[in-house]
Design brief:
GO molecular function: oxidoreductase activity
Radius of gyration: 25 Å
Strand content: 15-25%
Cofactor: FAD
Protein name: NADPH:adrenodoxin oxidoreductase, mitochondrial
Pfam families: Pyr_redox_2 (PF07992)
Structural class: alpha/beta
Number of strands: 16
CATH topology of the largest domain: Rossmann fold
Bound molecules: flavin-adenine dinucleotide
CATH class of the largest domain: Alpha Beta
Helix content: 25-40%
Strand order of the largest sheet: 6-14-7-8-10-9
Keywords: FAD, Flavoprotein, Mitochondrion, NADP, Oxidoreductase
């Protein structure tokens, strides 16, 4: 490609000059593969398209893009999902430089090594979607579901198994925001308060007809150890028609003199909120959501049909066993990091060596040489980077992912500046076609997107999601 010297830019001149300098060093435009179209991948693309003349191919396992923004963030948080408008604009404003390949699983439809051979740089941004297991005897009982499966179900992920919602009691294990999301979606759903959101109609109906009127949110540690954020916690306390409260036994632990010294203001506010909602007199509403602490799961008991009927816990304050009846048990214990086949992985020995020189290292995670760069063999000329949940663990909100991704893009464009590329790398579009991989392009996604919004409008909803995409990928030739 010819050197791009002219940069049309509406930002201050100094920023344009900086970009112009960056662009001018490249004789050949680098070709970059981004694995994953969640916030990490898309925010990296946003910065890369500004900072370098790179051509980018984004590969996404799902038939539709944007990761947990579409399939994780709760349906009553539509304002958070608005970031997809910015992602969509990238494909409009830079249609000559960025291409989307949905329905393509790296590691299955195309190998990581094939990306290495066909790109100058690779950004791993494939998130971390595998839920940690409960590992309590009886956890295979019917209607014991992971938070990630429950979230996927109400968010319309294709082929999600519907939970049974016909029992009045539900227990949610976990003290993080995913537990709160699950509780809130049940609480709002049974009251018919999600009708305007993007929960698919048939799933909305199941929620609306649910018999659940008691939810217990159970944590193994104390009330000062919760990982809730104040916004999500407040939302649960504010669901009208539900009485949400903290068990009376937590009152003493929540007294300010018990708070750790020097805690941040945000924690003080969180503890205040918990304290304010400790149950005073007895429960009043018929729909109740109770927060219980210091309960360790010991056993799940099933009925004669193999369906969960009780969670047995040990109360670590009293050392007594307690039984919580439930027809639905959701466990929200966080997500596990995963490493794609072919990507260098930290093994036990590496971790021991790294820790000796005070470097952090977790076995089974992507082997990084620093915060952004993946530790590739020295003979490999392709640069590999990782960002977002797959790189730094499954925690943090979208804004944090955005900050990381801006920084990784800066690193990539600086690194690529140092190399004189010898040839234009081909990418793998032809390879996918030769394998008849039915990928969904951005143009096809836009058709899906428009159709979903149109279907939604007819129902007075933000969108009516498709929960099957066969009709969009059934052509003989790849959809592009
Ligand atoms: C239930 C839940 C609710 C949340 N709610 C909020 C909220 O309200 N506000 C907020 O700010 N943050 C929220 N978050 C956090 C937020 O979703 C994450 O910070 C963010 O999505 C992480 O971005 P990511 O790109 O690393 O991962 P992801 O969003 O998971 O994106 C990774 C993408 O990679 C794709 N992928 C995986 N494997 C492959 C492969 N082999 N080949 C190709 N593609 C692949 C996945 O399909 C996915 O689309 C929530 C998280 C969860 C789990």
């Amino acid at each position: 490609m010819i050197i791009r010297r002219i940069v049309i830019c509406s930002r201050p001149v100094s920023a344009c000059l900086q970009n112009a300098r960056t662009f001018s060093n490249h004789k050949i435009a680098p070709r970059i593969a981004v694995v994953g179209s969640g916030p990490a991948g898309m925010f990296t693309c946003t910065s890369l398209l500004r900072k370098s003349p790179a051509h980018i191919d984004v590969f996404e396992y799902s038939p539709v893009p944007y990761g947990l923004v579409r399939y994780g963030v709760a349906p009553d948080h539509q304002e958070v999902k608005n970031c997809i408008n910015g992602f969509d604009k990238l494909f409009v404003n830079h249609s000559d430089r960025i291409k989307l390949f949905c329905n393509v699983k790296v590691g299955q439809d195309v190998a990581f090594d094939e990306l290495v051979s066909n790109y100058d740089a690779i950004v791993l941004a494939y998130g971390s979607y595998r839920q940690r297991k409960l590992q309590t005897p009886g956890d295979k009982s019917t209607n014991v579901v992971s938070g990630s499966d429950f979230v996927a179900w109400y968010n319309g992920v294709p082929n999600s198994k519907a939970p049974l919602l016909d029992n009045s009691e539900a227990v949610i294990i976990g003290n993080g925001n995913v537990a709160l999301d699950c509780a809130r979606i049940i609480s709002l759903g049974v009251l018919g308060k999600l009708n305007e959101t993007d929960v698919p109609l048939e799933r909305l109906k199941l929620l609306e007809n649910a018999a659940i009127n008691r939810i217990k949110i159970v944590g193994r540690r104390g009330p000062l150890d919760v990982s809730f954020t104040i916004k999500e916690l407040r939302e649960q306390f504010r669901v009208e028609g539900w009485q949400s409260y903290i068990e009376a036994a937590a009152r003493e632990e929540l007294e300010p003199e018990k708070w750790p010294a020097g805690i941040e203001r945000k924690h003080q506010r969180l503890f205040e909120l918990l304290r304010k909602h400790v149950l005073g007199s007895g429960p009043t509403d018929d729909k109740q959501c109770e927060f219980l602490f210091r309960r360790v799961s010991k056993e799940i008991k099933a009925d004669e049909n193999g369906r969960v009927k009780e969670l047995i816990v040990e109360n670590t304050r009293t050392k007594q066993r307690e039984a919580f009846p439930c027809g639905l048990l959701i466990y929200c214990l966080g997500y596990e990091s995963m490493v794609l086949d072919g990507v260098p992985k930290n093994d036990k020995v590496t971790c021991i060596l790294r820790k000796r020189v005070n470097m952090s290292c977790f076995e089974g995670t992507i082997a990084m040489s620093d915060y952004w760069r993946v530790s590739m063999p020295s003979a490999c000329s392709t640069r590999v980077y990782a960002t977002g949940w797959c790189a730094h663990g499954p925690q943090g909100v979208i804004v944090q992912t955005q900050q990381q991704s801006a920084a990784v893009a800066e690193t990539i464009s600086t690194d690529l500046e140092q190399i004189q590329l010898q040839e234009q790398k081909p990418g793998v579009a032809d390879l996918l076609k030769s394998r008849s991989v039915r990928y969904i392009s951005w143009e096809k996604w836009k058709q899906i997107d428009e159709a979903e919004k149109e279907r939604g409008k007819l129902q007075g909803k933000v969108r009516e999601k498709f929960t099957a995409f066969d009709q969009f990928v059934s052509d003989k030739s790849p959809v592009n």
